[in-house]
Predict the structure.
Amino acid sequence: MTDEATAKLTASDGSKGSEGRSPGRLAWKRFKRDKTGVISAYVVIFFFVIAIAAPLIAKLYGKDPYTTYASANPNLLNVFSYPAGPNGGMSSDFWFGIEPQLGRDVFTFLLYAIRTSLGIALAATLLTVFLGVVIGVTAGYLGGKTDYLVGRVIDILLSFPSTLFFIAFMPVIYGLFIAPDEDIPTWLRATGLIIVLATFGWASIARLLRGQVLGLREREFVEAAKVTGASPRRIVFKELLPNLWTPIIIQGTLMLPAFVTAEAGLAFLGVGMIDPTPDWGVMIQRGAMFYTEDITFMLFPGLSMVIFVLAFNLLGDSVRDALDPKSKR
Amino acid sequence: MSNAQPLLDVSGLTKHFPIKGGFPIKRTVGAVQAVDGLDFQVAEGEALGLVGESGCGKSTTGRLITRLLEPTGGKISYRGQDITHAGRRDLAPIRSEIQMIFQDPYASLNPRQTVGKIISGPMEINDINPAGGREARVRELLEIVGLNPEHYNRFPHEFSGGQRQRIGVARALALEPKLIVADEPVSALDVSIQAQVVNLLQKVQRELGIAFVFIAHDLAIVRHFSQRVAVMYLGKIVEIADREDLYDNPRHPYTRALLSAVPEATVDQEPRERIRLTGDVPSPINPPSGCRFRTRCWKATEKCATEAPPLVQVEGNKPGHLTACHYPETADAVPAPRLSKDPEAAA
C-alpha cells in the first residue's frame, strides 16, 4: 500500500478520534490490563489513605497512640506486664491488642507509625529523585569535565557501604544542629533521616539518567531543535525531560519501598526515629523484645510492612512494564 | 549559475575531529579529517546535490552548514554574512532561513510530542505568529506535505516512515526557509516511498523557491532532484558541475567510476563497461598525500602523490564545471582499464 493510501485510510478511520493516543495513555491502557499491578496499586493507595487519614480514624476510634491505657485500667495487663487477654489483648476496645509493659493501643500506634514511615520515605524519595534528575541531566547534557567530575563522585558514593554510613552519619547530622547534651527533637530526626537517605540515594538515579541523556542528546530530534535555534533550557525541558519520565517514575517507585525498609532498619538499630514516636521500625524493635511471650504485637507491624513493600515493588514492576514494554523479561 | 551574490558561499571549509588518547592525561593524538577544504556556492532556489561514498564527509558538511558542528577552518557566509563561528544568539535571525531535514525519520521526531507540537515548535522558538494562528499554519503545512490536517493531535509512533519524513519536511518548512539542507532524506525509506518523498521535496523546491543542499549516495535520486551536483571523496570535492554536464561528461576518474556503478534498468542493452575500484577508501585519519583518490586510481602517477590537484575548470569543460584532477578523463576515452595495475604500487 502506498503512503498516500495509508494516509487517507488512517484519516478515515480516525474521523471520530482525531485525538492521538499519547505514549502516556497507551501505557495507562497497558497498566489497566495488568491485574497484579492494579491490585498492588489498590493496596498501596489503601496504605497511603490510612496514613493520611490516621488522625481522623484515631478520632473515630476514640484512642491515641501516646496514652498508656494500662495505667488507667491495670486489668489490661497481667502481673508480668503482658496483655491479660488472649491474642495480645485483642478485643472490641483494642482491635489490634495492647502493647506489653506500657499498655498503649496497638491499632492507633500502627496507624501513626505508617504515617511517619511513609512520610519520611516519600519525602526522601522526592528529594532523591529531584537531586538525581538535576545532577544526572546536567552531567549528561554538559558532558566534558562536569560529567567526569560528577561521574567520579557517583563512583565514590556508590562504593560506600551505605547502612554503615547511615549509622555513622546520623549523630553527625544531629550534632550540626544541636548541642550534644540537648534532646534531639523529632522534626530533626525526621529531617536528618531524609537528608541522609537522599545524600546516599541520588547517585544511582543520576548515573542512570546521565546515560539516558547521553543517548538522547545525539538523537536527531534534539539536533532538529538546535537547528531551529532552541535554547539549552528548552532542549532540556521540552525535548529531553519528557523522554526521561519513564526511567524517573520507574526508579521512584522502586526507591520508595527501599526507603521504607531502610528507615525502619535505622529505627530498629536506634539511629532513626525513637520511642515514643510511632514508627514502623520502632514498633518492630519493641516487638522483638517481647516476641517470645507476645507474638501478636510483633505480627501487626511486621505483616503490614511486608504487605506494603511487596505491593509497592510489584506496582513498580507493573509500572515499568506498562511504560517500557520492550524491557519485559 | 547567476552572477548575483550566492545564497550560500562556502570556502575552504574544514572540519577535523580530534582523537583523544593517552593515559592518565588525555591529549590530542590525531584528527579525523572529515571535511578538508570545501569550496562551493549555492544560488537562490538552486538544488545542489552532494554525493559520495559513506564516510566521505557529506553529512558533516550538512551539519557544518546548519552550524550543528563548529568548523575547524574556512568560511561559511549566508547572503554575504559570515556565520562561520556565529553563536546561537547571533544566528537567531538566520536560523529561520536555513533548515534541515534528517535522515532517520524514526529518530528525528520527538516521540513525546504531538505532530502539531513538533511542527509549531520552530515557530514558538522563533516567536513567529502567522496570521490566523500557529495551529492554522500547521494544518496548512500538513496539507502541503500531503498529510491530513486532522493528524494535528497525533503522535509520531502512529505514522509510517514516509509519513514521518513528511512531518520532518513540514517542520523544516514551518519557518519559511530559503535554504534546506536535506541529509539523505530518503535513504531510510522503502524504495516505493522514496520517489514520493523526493517528488514532494521537488514540488517544495520549485513552488516555494527554496534552495536545497541535497545529500545522498543514490546517484539516480540526485540526478532527478538537483540542478548541480558535487562529488565528494574523502573530505574533498573532486568534481562539481551542472547535472547534465556531470552525468554526460564526467571528467574525474572517480566520478566516472561512480557513474559506471549505477545499475542499468534496460535489459536488451549491451552490458556497459564497469569500472571496478579495488581496495577500501583510505582512512581519513591519515589521508594519502597529493590527490586523495590516487591509491585507487588507474591513472595515478608521481605527480598525483606529490601535488594535490586544484578544483578548476579543466580544458574542455563548460563554465561552472570544475574538476580536481591532473589527468582528467575525456568524453571519447577508451573504457578505463579494469585496474590491472596493482593498487599498492600507486600508493
